[in-house]
Predict the 3D structure of the following.
Amino acid sequence: MSPHALRLAARLSLALVWLGEGLGLKLWLRDPGELALVADSGLWIGSPEATLVGIGVLEVIAGVVLLVGYRERLAVAVTTVAMALITLGVVWTDPSTLLAPLTGVLKNSAVAVCGAVVWSFAPEVRSPAVPALR
């Protein structure tokens, strides 16, 4: 597989994860497990339901940005950091998620690897006023 094909596959995989999480679990289904995670965390604004919808919208935006390939390196950096912060928040409030099968912690490990692949193979976008991200 060429680096370009590998980068594209990893980026599209990331986009599908974010779209599935946002559209499917948070906006359409309003998954009770997702709502419980937000509610139990105490890290919500307004209400757990409103926060879940807000997170879902942000995940959909991330998925669309990755799907179209806009600023790949910046997009994967932002989504990977956001995913890491969300994971830390969930584990902080419920350490048992580390041991649960097929949880966000396991999924997010694979997501981070996809992000690293995209970061490694995406061309750098240079701006005269801002140094390139490395």
Q: What stands out?
A: The helical segments are 3-28, 32-41, 48-68, 72-93, 104-121. The CA atoms of residues 22 and 56 lie 4 Å apart. The radius of gyration is 16 Å.
